[in-house]
Amino acid sequence: MSVSTPMLVTFVIYILGMVLIGLAAYRSTKNFDDYILGGRSLGSFVTALSAGASDMSGWLLMGLPGAIFLSGISESWIAIGLTIGAWLNWKIVAGRLRVQTEHHDNALTLPDFFTSRFEDNSKILRVISALVILIFFTIYCASGVVAGARLFESTFGMSYETALWAGAAATILYTLIGGFLAVSWTDTVQASLMIFALILTPVIVIVAVGGLDSSLAVIEAKSIENLNMLKGLNFVAVISLLGWGLGYFGQPHILARFMAADSHRSIRTARRIGMAWMVLCLAGAVAVGFFGIAYFQNHPEQAANVSGNGERVFIELARILFNPWIAGILLSAILAAVMSTLSCQLLVCSSALTEDLYKGFLRKNASQKELVWFGRAMVLLVALIAIALASNPDNRVLGLVSYAWAGFGAAFGPVVLFGVCWKRMTRNGALAGMIIGAATVLIWKQYGWLGLYEIIPGFAFSSIAIVVFSLLGRAPSAAAQQRFAAAEAEYLAK
């Protein structure tokens, strides 16, 4: 396979740009607070785009368009569920979490927040939540490495082994050097690249087919079912797809962006920017897959690659319809989506190992410099483990990624939601909710009862457990309730 020089040049320029941003962030990283949360200095724009980019991985440009291309518009229910869930997360959790973490010993991580918020002197919440993060995110990271490797492999004809390191190296480097600021600043660039690609591509596809009416006519002629929102779906299936939105309340890499905002007052503006970005990106991804049906129906001679793998629809449309230089920029958006999610997952794993285990149990009095360098070492360690897991792309461990989102959503989502909204919640309630939520997801996935997505029963049973165990036990101390009340008063005083 010949390598396109323009595409190679644009990829190299893009990757070098990300590394340079990492070096700039390195100069602004003075202590561990800076490395893990950027010194809580993110403005509205960076908070919004960083939260969006860290959420939307290669799935946005490959998985979702591919599903729409193969099955029609009915696959867009998941995009609707994600939009609703993200908006509720911004509206209910974001500002409160920003204030609550500051009032509870300036917590830098979710396990840190749980320990302080629920006065967990036993530190069992810290250990369990840190382990949940490490297990699920190491697997998540492996899937990101595979996605990057597949992009390099298909674009440049590299062997999978070479593509594995090429795809992961730049992300590891800027995360290792610059920490949270590097990840957030690069996320902003990457989010801009993603929205550019997802708005431009479907417009050009529609023009290439002959306009909107012609495109819809071709799609309808192929199969009227492509226009049916309920194609092949029953009530349970629709609820399951919408249920993906529940996952937002418990995703550590997204919640970290809220915690890092310069003020809870920035959250309102960030919500508007973030939701506008998300709606446009999801609509663009759906449109790429949907109108891709029309394009390849009209040009069956060019459809060999997409008929074998629907997830290549964005890649193929970019290659076919655009000048190689523009195609290189558009394909860099896939790399941007992969890198933005992988980088923040690496950082969250590093923070769990450093803040919650190393400092929490082994080196309570460690200096700031020591913590920063240990954090960097942990980024490298987790990355190498992820690469090892990804070295065999068919390894069945990667199958766990399909419910890692549900695992986080059910284990952490209700704990975070109740934790920032209900002052009567206790340590035992949080512990029960976390364990029952995670266990429900794991068990439900194995048996697939009712065909219902496991996050829905997991979230429900976790919520019930939190309420029951909190009310059965002793109320939180007066000091804990006062801290909660003070934080809530500050949030409402906006």
Automatic annotation (TrEMBL):
Give a GO molecular function annotation for the protein: proline:sodium symporter activity
Q: Which reaction does it catalyse?
A: L-proline(in) + Na(+)(in) = L-proline(out) + Na(+)(out)
Main localisation, per the record?
membrane
The question of whether Transport is a record keyword is answered with yes
Q: Where are the transmembrane segments?
A: 6-26, 67-88, 127-152, 164-186, 193-212, 232-249, 275-296, 325-350, 371-391, 403-422, 429-449, 455-473
- Record flagged with keyword Repeat: no
| GO biological process, alphabetically ordered | proline transport
CDD domains, A to Z = SLC5sbd_PutP
Q: How does it sit in the membrane?
A: Multi-pass membrane protein
Gene Ontology cellular component list: plasma membrane
Q: Keywords assigned by UniProt?
A: Amino-acid transport, Cell inner membrane, Cell membrane, Ion transport, Membrane, Sodium, Sodium transport, Symport, Transmembrane, Transmembrane helix, Transport
InterPro entries of this UniProt entry?
Na/Glc_symporter_sf, Na/Pro_symporter, Na/solute_symporter, Na/solute_symporter_CS, Sodium:Solute_Symporter
| Pfam families in the cross-refs | SSF
Compartments, record wording: Cell inner membrane; Cell membrane
| Family that this chain belongs to | Belongs to the sodium:solute symporter (SSF) (TC 2.A.21) family.
Please explain the role this protein plays, according to its UniProt record: Catalyzes the sodium-dependent uptake of extracellular L-proline.
What is the protein name given in its UniProt record? Sodium/proline symporter
- Species, as recorded: Pantoea piersonii
